[in-house]
Design brief:
single chain; 138 residues; mainly alpha; Four Helix Bundle (Hemerythrin (Met), subunit A); two-stranded antiparallel ribbon; 5 helices; 2 strands; elongated
Amino acid sequence: MSRASATTPLLRLVNDEPAIALDPTALQRLRDLDPGGRGRLLERVLEAFESSSTRLAAQLVEARERNDTAGIRLVVHTLKSSSASIGALSLARLCAEIETSLRNGMHADLAGPLDAVLHELQAVLQIVKPMLKGTPPP
């Protein structure tokens, strides 16, 4: 079995209440593509997500500081797809909302949504990192 365990809790707390950070169905779809886990597909996808999302978070912060809406749009578009692939549906939704706003020319007041993306990304990574180590997340 891969280190990305099927029994790892996929919850995080929102206002002291549990909330799903990773959709178990999406993770199961990845597991189903690699029966028995011999190809380590889930683990490799989670590793790629962890690596790319860390880089994307830094790019998002930089684009935000430069007020680079094209850069922000590119980052949230990329993060939307990768987060959806691992079942981080709240993160994907937040990214899609920012992407749509920017596409529609609504560039003002992105501070709150961008903060929400960065916060949700950290919550997702708190789930993903322990899954890669084979230990339950905090």
